[in-house]
């Protein structure tokens, strides 16, 4: 007689103020404040109930305190895109939604999905991600201020906007310097140098890839395209062929690669020729840029894996 032993799994619904913790299959639920003390109590509950797997929704810095505290605890941790949790709830036919129900749904997801677990990021990786996110925030603020500058005509407003842009640009430069220092301290300096040998990849794009896609060079080309949100997903039903489109992935990485493709298609002769060939074949410009970005990513992934710089013989293609 085979005896099935249910794995004790847990889910945590992360919020700014609270951590809602649920265990499957028991359905036990507890709420803890998202403070150092509350996190310590949650970790104690994980140990007390002998939780073996735990899933957290990937919603950014609100989860960092908990992730730090879970290091050294003997369990598998998955940081999951919220879209997968929503899809799971829909598959269960659940419509009601609150923090308690969300935590319980995440716990059931943790019990049934074995493919979501990976090592908890170390302190250096968390700092790098936070610094990279801060750089993006400042860049967005600069763009907004420059838009306001174009719309302003009053001399006092113009002076104020120019002063703010200068302050933000100085802050951006400081953050970029710190980000590059953190990347070098984490052993990603060689990756930075390698990436910048490729067409269209400058210091800022290289830093984004090194910070937000550290898996580069350690995964296959299809996995890399999926992580970057550049993998085409087919939508087909019956005789309706549909159209393949990209979705998901890491938006900051996808944006960086798209910009690299745009620059390369204008300044690199071979890439420019390939871009024009796509247009001649009837592809819209954005589709052509996405295709070049995907091919560029595959080439970058292979370069980092082989620790080789770009050469003019390098092809925009790769292998798993």
Walk me through what this model shows.
With 320 residues, this protein is of the alpha/beta class. It has three domains: 9-112, Nucleotidyltransferase, domain 5; 122-187; 188-235 and 243-320, no CATH class. It has helices at 36-48, 64-70, 82-92, 99-112, 123-151, 155-185, 189-195, 203-212, 221-227, 251-267, 269-280, 285-306; strands spanning 9-14, 18-24, 29-33, 53-57, 76-80, 232-233, 245-246. The strands form two sheets. Strands 3-2-1-4-5 form a five-stranded mixed beta sheet. A two-stranded antiparallel ribbon has the order 6-7. Helix 8 runs antiparallel to helix 10 (251-267). The model is unreliable at 1-5 (pLDDT under 50).
Set down the secondary structure blueprint:
Layout (H helix, E strand, L loop, with lengths): L8 E6 L3 E7 L4 E5 L2 H13 L4 E5 L6 H7 L5 E5 L1 H11 L6 H14 L10 H29 L3 H31 L3 H7 L7 H10 L8 H7 L4 E2 L11 E2 L4 H17 L1 H12 L4 H22 L14
Parallel strand pairs: 1-4, 4-5
Antiparallel strand pairs: 1-2, 2-3, 6-7
Helix pairs in contact: 1-2, 5-6, 5-8, 6-8, 7-8, 8-10, 9-12, 10-11, 10-12, 11-12
- Could you tell me the strand content as a percent range? 5-15%
- The protein's oligomeric status is single chain
**What's the count of strands?**
7
Please identify the structural class as seen in this structure: alpha/beta
Radius of gyration: 23 Å
Mean pLDDT: 87
Count of structural domains: 3
Helix content: 55-70%
Number of helices: 12
Largest sheet: 5 strands, mixed
The 3D shape can be described as globular
From the N-terminal CA to the C-terminal CA, the straight-line distance is 43 Å
Question: H/E order of the elements?
Answer: EEEHEHEHHHHHHHEEHHH
Please state how the strands of the largest beta sheet are arranged side by side: 3-2-1-4-5
Sequence stretches where pLDDT stays below 50 over 5 or more residues? 1-5
């Amino acid at each position: 007689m085979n005896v099935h032993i249910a794995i004790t799994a847990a889910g945590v619904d992360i919020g700014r103020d609270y951590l809602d913790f649920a265990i499957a299959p028991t359905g036990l639920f507890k709420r803890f404040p998202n403070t150092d003390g509350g996190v310590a109590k949650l970790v104690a509950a994980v140990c007390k109930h002998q939780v073996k797997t735990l899933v957290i929704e990937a919603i950014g810095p609100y989860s960092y305190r908990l992730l730090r505290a879970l290091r050294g605890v003997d369990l598998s941790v998955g940081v999951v895109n919220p879209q997968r949790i929503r899809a799971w709830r829909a598959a269960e036919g659940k419509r009601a939604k609150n923090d308690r129900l969300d935590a319980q749904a995440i716990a059931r997801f943790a019990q049934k999905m074995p493919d979501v677990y990976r090592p908890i990021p170390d302190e250096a990786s968390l700092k790098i991600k936070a610094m990279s996110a801060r750089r993006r925030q400042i860049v967005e603020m600069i763009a907004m201020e420059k838009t306001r500058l174009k719309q302003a005509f009053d001399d006092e407003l113009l002076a104020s906007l120019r002063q703010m842009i200068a302050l933000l640009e100085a802050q951006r430069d400081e953050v970029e310097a710190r980000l590059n220092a953190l990347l070098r301290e984490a052993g990603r300096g060689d990756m930075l140098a390698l990436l910048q040998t490729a067409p269209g990849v400058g210091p800022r794009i290289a830093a984004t890839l090194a910070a937000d896609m550290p898996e580069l060079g350690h995964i296959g080309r299809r996995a890399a395209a999926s992580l970057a949100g550049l993998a085409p997903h087919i939508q087909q039903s019956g005789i309706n062929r549909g159209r393949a489109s990209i979705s998901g992935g890491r938006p900051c990485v996808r944006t960086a690669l798209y910009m690299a493709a745009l620059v390369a298609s204008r300044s690199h002769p071979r890439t420019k020729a390939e871009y024009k060939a796509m247009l001649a074949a009837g592809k819209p410009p954005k589709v052509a840029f996405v295709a070049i970005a995907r091919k560029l990513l595959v080439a970058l992934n292979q370069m980092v894996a082989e620790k080789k710089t770009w050469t003019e013989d390098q092809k925009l293609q790769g292998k798993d």
